[in-house]
Write a structure and sequence with these properties.
InterPro entries: AIG2-like_dom (IPR009288), GGACT (IPR039126), GGCT-like (IPR013024), GGCT-like_sf (IPR036568). Its EC number is 4.3.2.8. Belongs to the gamma-glutamylcyclotransferase family. One of its GO terms (molecular function) is gamma-glutamylaminecyclotransferase activity. There is one protein chain. It is globular and about 40 Å long. It has one domain: Hypothetical upf0131 protein ytfp. The protein contains three helices and seven strands, in the order βαββββαβαβ. Helices cover 15% and strands 31% of the residues.
Amino acid sequence: MARVFVYGTLKKGQPNYKHMINTAKGLAKFQGRGRTVEKYPLVIAGKYNIPYMLNIPGTGHHVAGEIYSVDDQMLQFLDEFEGCPDMYQRTLMRIEVVEWEGKGGAGEARAAAEGVVECFVYSTTTYPPEWVGLPYHDSYDSSGKHGLSYVLRESR
């Protein structure tokens, strides 16, 4: 099992969460909530209003999201869903645990107790330069105050 941190449309209550609970795509077990240890710019960009975490450590906000434990099948699905490695790149990042529900071995409990876990995160280094000038968010909600409605793939 791998640990994945999601900050956008795959979170609970968001438009693509359905994929996280679709066992035909693999297993994803909610472990808790967290935020990036380093600051990153989280922007909403493109004609479909997609949330992107730009891989520019030290800039932006501590981005909030959810931590999942996923099997290889789900990780492969997420790679395809996120257009990895072209649109997003999957990298390991340190995530500060804000709230932990996960159950696991001693290593899991110790990591959660220490307050920081390593997770795969889909961020991007391949973006138009003007995205750096967009507003930065500390968390994403598809129906947030930003007024930028996410466009589902099936509607594009």
